[in-house]
Amino acid sequence: MMKAAVLTFVAGAALLAGTQGDEAALKKDKARIEGMWKITRFAGPKGDNADFVGATMTFGKDGSVEFRKEDKTKKASFKLNPSAKPKQIDLTPDDDSNKLMRGIYTFEKDTLKLCIAHEDNNDRPTEFTEGGSSVLITLEKAK
User: Fold this and answer.
1) Which residues are within 8 A (CB) of 7 and not within 5 positions of it... i.e. 6 or more apart?
2) Domain containing 75: what range?
3) pLDDT computed for residue 105 by the predictor
């Protein structure tokens, strides 16, 4: 009886510790992604697209993201899952809440890489590759 109680306690403590670790990782990545990022490279299914270089993406504390290119603005919401391998990001455009863009992300110093499933494909990418059915976006933190 005592052994079962100890095992239950240990299992519960391990589960709680894992959840706290996930929350800490989420908090850390949300703080890191927050702010304005400048697109330095945009590679779509047909290769590099220089039209998007120089555009910005601004991630807010509230889970909002704003894409801005010259005088055009698109807004969306985002959710991060830093516990997944690779880390996952979901984007939902404000003008179409039924559309979910699945992707993955990674940080490398002051660089953020996003690999998002192309709109014709709803499968989440599993690696940071160019072409195919994904869009690879490289961003640098705006200063």
Assistant:
1) none
2) 2-141
3) 98
